[in-house]
Amino acid sequence: MPYSFPLGPYHPALEEPFKVKVQCRGEVIESATVEVGFSYRGIELLAQKRNWVEVITLIERVCGICSNTHAMTFCMAAETIAGIELPKRAAHIRTIIAELERLHSHLLWAGVGAEDIGFHSLFMEVFTLRERVMDTLEAISGNRVNYGMNCIGGVLRDIPDPAAHLPALDALAKGLGEIVIPTFTQNPTALARTRGVGRLSREQAVEWAVVGPVARASGLDIDVRKDQPYLSYADLGFESVVRPEGDVQARVVVRALEMMESVRLIREALLSLPPGPLRATQGLPEIPAGEATIRTEAPRGEAFYYVASEGGASPARVKIRTPSFVNIPAIEPMVMGQTLADLSIIQASVDPCISCTDR
Amino acid sequence: MTADTMTADIESTERAFPRLTEALRAIPGVRSVAARNGALWADAPLLDVEAMAAAMAALGIRLGTVTAIPHPDSAESTVIYHYIDEHRIINVKTCTRNGALASLAPSVRAASWAEREIRDLFAVEFPGHPNPVPLIRPEGIDTATLREAMCRPATVARKPSSPLASPPASPPAPPPARS
């Protein structure tokens, strides 16, 4: 006897409100429909009603986790329209914050994923490491989230003593290499719940146009940091992590190995921080008429911004396409034929951000 | 960007990606193709959107998203299809006709949510969409949620204003003395 089961919009397995409605026969899922829009805020409209400086503060609140990505991408779009060249030191500092944010996001996800498969001790280990990242972000920016680092033309705060943050990176690399990565890749409990579960083939990844770790775990070698380098990624060098399996385990491994690459990028950026100014412009920015499209690699994948200016005090249009907006629909093919008990970890493996999706 | 550098940019784009520029020009309705601000922009007011989808699929370029910009003085909207070939963004700009454009969703999955969102917010219709149900609009609320508000001109100060920036005109009244 087939029956339907609604996961969400409010459910202990979900961090934020969205709904996966599944049709099951016995324990097996036959079809799924994803519904979003439960926390829509109209940020794209509000961005047209504020001036260029206030919009940065607003846009930073698109997401609580990848807040820096949004503010940074918006600033990059405004800089492109105005033809402002970012100083080298500012580019390095933006790279450091972006990679710290990726670490914080991936560790948050790894903790939530561990909790979803009932692995509480791993959750504790992961969140202990995440605190080191949060402490480093707080030491640099003064904030644990919504760092307020970006302004049009540069960054607002310097990193006066880069070497002070290296011990935290050593501790992170040790914790990731000795505990988090081996547990997720070798522990029988973690393997039993993730290997072969929630597969998305390479063809399906192309068809659903997924981005970020979800695409890379299905064998698609796409990463904006490599394909269209921005900030300091071309100087620092970047290796993308790709796995062909396409299951939850592959998504775990891609994120875990990416964290090691992020630690390396942050270390190199700190050690090679160039001297120079933090901002290319002083005072309030003048953004001439024009339009620009910018994409950056957020922790969950490619973030896309379209920004138009008519030369006025506020943007004429800000379009935000977050990575979750294209990754969340792909939950539908992932859960097909899987057991109901795995629905929770499969949807979590996409690292869905509803705040981003709804905006 | 000066006119000279822009022309040079277009020429270098054509030299580097002759196939891409040529394929864009061959799409019915495309009037011009130019490189601007690090991306390719195709202007096509009377674009054949289905032909564009087929041409992009043949080139193996994925649809990133779709942007709609409502026109304040009519029911039409500018619609921009943002394609991504991993190394650059290709923007194809068109305009709705009678408030509608053919849906790409039957052949391009990534268009499905983008079109549903645009329909919810700006009442642009996409005939042929396989599942035209609301995406972010609550049940019972009409389409065009943001259309009117987005068309209204913004009245903002160029300088950020903060309630902490200037002191209040008069000091707050002292609390009444207790008897």
TrEMBL record, chain A:
Binding of Ni(2+), residues: 63, 66, 353
Binding site residues for Mg(2+): 44, 320
Cofactor: Ni(2+); Fe cation
Sequence positions that bind Fe cation: 66, 356
Chain ranges of the NADH-quinone oxidoreductase subunit D domain: 116-281, 286-359
Coiled-coil ranges per UniProt: none
Organism domain of life: Bacteria
GO terms assigned for molecular function: ferredoxin hydrogenase activity; NAD binding; nickel cation binding; oxidoreductase activity, acting on NAD(P)H; quinone binding
Signal sequence range: none
Keywords, ordered alphabetically: Iron, Magnesium, Metal-binding, Nickel, Oxidoreductase, Plasmid
This protein's name: Nickel-dependent hydrogenase large subunit
